[in-house]
Amino acid sequence: MTGQITGRRSLHKWAAAVAVVLGATALWGGTASAANIVTNPGFESGLTGWTCASTAAVVSTPVHGGTKALSATPAGSDFARCQQTISVRPSTAYTVSAWVRGNYVFLGATGTGTTDAQTWGTPGATWKQLTTSFTTGPSTSSVTVYVNGWYGQGTYYADDIVLDGPGGTNPSPTPTPTPTVTPTPTPTPTPTPTPPTSNGKRLLVGYLHASFANGSGYIRMADVSSDWDFIDLAFGEPTSVTSGDIRFNRCPATECPNVESDADFIAAIRTKQAAGKKVLISIGGQNGQVQLTTTAARDKFVQSVGAIIDKYGLDGLDIDFEGHSLSLNQGDTDFRNPTTPVVVNLISAIRSLKARYGSKFVLTMAPETFFVQLGYQFYGPGPNGSADPRSGAYLPLIHALRNDLTLLHVQDYNSGPIMGLDNQYHTMGVADFHVAMTDMLLTGFPVAGGATFPALRPDQVAIGLPAAPFAGNGFTTVAEVQKAFGCLAKGTNCGTYRPHGVFSGLRGLMTWSVNWDKYNGSEFSRNHRAYLNALG
Fold first, then answer.
1. Going by DSSP bridges, is the β-strand pair 461-466/508-512 parallel, antiparallel, or unpaired?
2. Cβ distance 98 to 140 under 8 Å?
3. How high does pLDDT run on average in the chain?
4. How far apart are CA 268 and CA 176, in angstroms?
5. Bias category Pro residues: which stretches (predicted)?
């Protein structure tokens, strides 16, 4: 469910857009003077003090100051982040800056306890300074400062990273989560729309680490809080990328000493279902790349997913295809009539599962913004084949299955800046980002200047969020989340972005994950369950 998603762009197409965004991005030419509390800020001691992606290295040229600098290259679904957790004081103003070069470079801070800070720029082959600021929350004792690149935009460099402000006491080590955190078929009759579930109740959806612990601890099914309405088992993964053969392996006792038996796990699922909860198998995640390139893979997907659902008596399926699972071939330009086999076969497979299990089958999807809202600007490889073919690649899936879709909860995190319907770029971590991204789903939008992707019903849409600062990039505080939800559902307390309507039926919130929420003192579920209940 994690991994910053922003795609390869044709740079000449992005020139005007970058100019707009950089109006809000500070690029300085002078030297900062700071009380720097970063360890090894100029990488003179290698990567000491930093946690970095596998492609990160220290180089002797180019450098901004001293004799060393950081070099990192985004590869695949990795955006080549390098980060450091630093002790700070509560309710204190800080400024973070870095000298960078490269096509696209991001700088920011998470875990601030208020609004996380992020800025970015396109300095190219010359050194430029990025800077942004934040104020820590009243109980904040540490923040994580980071720098990273952008998918497909080549190597970036960073040097002389500064966090200007007073240091605090040394924080306890912060757990590092495993990111989590996307032929023409024979026409089939349009299925009867799936009726809204839970009698219109606002929903809380949470992913349960069922096959791994991920540093946050294993939670038995019986111990999952009753605050959660949909519980997505993470994850079902393929035996190989193109096999279509999905397996769900429960967490081994060596990793999860408190794991329950299959019999107890299934019994607990039945208890949850008797209480009105829905338990789904989620397919994919960051590590579970699934490409149904052939009809044989399609059929195996149907058979193997059905076997998992039957074994555990599950209510349905969540599609969490990330990375390179979905992309569009050159010439596949109409989301209403897709021709790319991995898309066509997935649509067909899900329709088969829906037909098998009937109207009560629950279908949810958790794409990243890159696969949905980015389609407003870019769709597939584009007319000249230079764009990232994954751009907007979920749109044909969502559109074809909209009558079967129970809930779409786009991951409003691990995202680069995305253009909204106001033709302005919005950055994750604040209310306006969630309002702008959700408004696109509830209003509809032209896909890359062409045909309009029709709006979804409000009861089909939830907002996807990380449960805690260490669960995903772009953490949004409780207050900002509820500000966004109130703006969309009630038309009140809106910020700069104004949605195109009041969507009183907006269904709820999704989070990665149940485990990280509990690890964080259940802040997400406790606060948002009460808020959604009061909202009615």
1. parallel
2. no
3. 87
4. 29
5. 172-196
Q: Which tens digit of pLDDT belongs to each residue from 345-358?
A: 999 999 999 999 99
Concatenating the DSSP letter of every residue in 363-395 gives EEE--BGGGTGGGGT--TT-TTS-S-TTTTTTH
Alpha-carbon span 359 to 377, nearest angstrom: 35
Question: What average pLDDT does range 321-345 have in this prediction?
Answer: 97
Nearest Cα neighbor of 461 from 479, 443, 446 is: 443
β-strand pairing of 69-72 with 156-164: antiparallel
The pLDDT tens digits of the residues spanning 31-79 come to 333 479 999 999 999 999 999 988 999 999 999 999 999 999 986 556 7
What is the spatial distance between Cα 341 and Cα 185, in angstroms, rounded to a whole number?
9
CB atoms within 10 A of CB 129: 22
Phi–psi pair at 434, nearest 5 degrees = -65, -35
Rounded to two decimals, the pTM is: 0.68
pLDDT of residue 117 exceeding 90: no
Structure tokens at 503: 């969507």
What are the φ and ψ backbone dihedral angles of 236, each rounded to 5 degrees? -90, 130
Taking CA 114 as the corner, what is the angle to CA 109 and CA 120, rounded to the nearest 5 degrees?
A: 35
Percent of the chain that is helix, strand, coil (3-state, to 5): 25, 25, 50
Among 42-51, 117-126, 185-194, the minimum mean pLDDT is found in 185-194
The DSSP annotation for 448-486 comes to TTSSEEPPPPGGGEEEEEESSTTTSTT---HHHHHHHHH
| Long-range CB contacts for residues 261-265, cutoff 8 Å, separation at least 24 | 264/220, 264/221, 264/222, 265/220, 265/221, 265/312
The single residue of 260, 322, 368, 480 carrying the catalytic annotation is 322
Q: In angstroms, rounded to a whole number, what is the distance separating the alpha carbons of residues 353 and 222?
A: 27
pLDDT tens for 441-469 read: 999 999 999 999 999 999 999 999 999 99
322 as an active site residue: the answer is yes
135 CB burial (10 A radius; 0-12, 13-18, 19+): middle
Which amino acid, residue 16? Answer: A
Q: How far is CA 32 from CA 82, 164, 283, 528, in A?
A: 21, 9, 47, 41
pLDDT tens-digit readout, 468-505: 999 999 999 999 999 999 999 999 999 999 999 999 99
- CB 165 within 8 Å of CB 90: no
Q: What CA–CA distances, in Å, run from 135 to 34, 466, 482?
A: 16, 21, 20
Secondary structure of 488-530 in HEC code, one letter for each residue: HHHCCCCCCCCCCCCCCCCCEEEEECHHHHHHCCCHHHHHHHH
Three-state secondary structure along 167-180?
ECCCCCCCCCCCCC
CB atoms under 10 Å from CB of 238, counted, come to: 23
Cα separation, 448 vs 408, whole angstroms: 21
Sign of CA dihedral 517, 507, 118, 2: positive
Residue 430 to residue 413: CA distance in whole angstroms = 10
